Amino acid sequence: MRYTKMHGAGNSFVLIEDPRGEHRGEDLSVLALRLCDEKSGPGADGLIVVTRAEGADMGMLFYNSDGSAGEMCGNGARCLARWGLEHGRVRDADDIRILAPAGMVRARRITEELYELRLNDPSVIELEREAEGERCSYVELGEPGIPHAVVEVDEEAFSNLGALRERGGKLRRSAAFPKGANVSFACPLGGGRVRAITYERGVEDFTLACGTGCGAIAVSLLLSGRVAGESVTIEMPGGELSVSLRKADGRAFDLLLTGPTAVVEKGEFRL
User: Which residues are marked as active site?
Assistant: First the structure.
């Protein structure tokens, strides 16, 4: 089986093709466990399975490193957009269409490495929710929605990642989030910049970047007025991601996620 390993701002993925839909979900779940584990495969945060999809350039199935299926992945979709363009699966570099379980997302190439993705509009926005004694925002992107909790912290909190990891793991499994949640800790820095890190559901740890997490952070901070305007640059451990959106009547829409992509390696994996 041929694969391509890529990353978006450090968020890493193994991409494989299944154009005929030959693999069942349970097979792909097991495959994700093997491919994403550095001891048995290339190692990555997630597995992207490229499929055919009517009305789109490509279909995208996403599996986390623990084998669980995800609704969509922002950084993964940006990487897939580049992969599709470089492998002749895309007709228009300014309108790359990817169909994921959470719905259709569109991307465009800005430079060889920089790609912009229109994230799924939020289906749920709660700017205040309590979970495990913490105040947070709760956002779901797409339908079915990708669940995200956003907790605002001061910059000093990032000096103790062990404590943040413990908080993230506890919140990720909180009964306040029936589907579980990706948990982002965010600190506004001023000037439209935010420092953040995300504890990802399915990875069960911090990742170097989270695309949909950045979307949720932008929705939370821009709608609450904690950051002014309609755009934000988010500093994550793996690099910077930018999100712009439009807002009206407590809603957010037209979320655009922009950031780098990189090809790490290409190879073959023996099943």
Answer: 73, 210
What is the reported pTM?
0.93
**What is the DSSP code (8-state) at residue 23?**
S
Q: Is the pLDDT assigned to residue 271 strictly greater than 90?
A: no
Give the whole-angstrom CA distance, residue 128 versus residue 242. Answer: 24
For residue 270, count other CB atoms closer than 10 A to its CB. 4
Contacts of 173 (CB under 8 A, 6+ apart): 180
Q: Return the closest-CA partner of residue 120 out of 137, 102, 96, 107.
A: 102
Q: Which two tokens stand for residue 139?
A: 């956002």
State whether residue 164 is helix, strand or coil.
Answer: helix
Could you give the count of Cα atoms lying within 13 Å of 78 in the half-sphere of its Cβ?
A: 33
Running DSSP on this structure, what letter comes out for residue 76? H
Q: How far is CA 212 from CA 28, 55, 74, 257, in A?
A: 22, 23, 5, 8
Q: What does residue 32 show for φ and ψ, rounded to 5 degrees?
A: -60, -40
Average pLDDT over residues 16-41: 86
Residues 6 or more apart from 191 whose CB is under 8 A from it? Answer: none
Rounded CA separation 217/151 (Å): 9
pLDDT tens, 224-251? 999 999 999 999 999 999 999 999 999 9
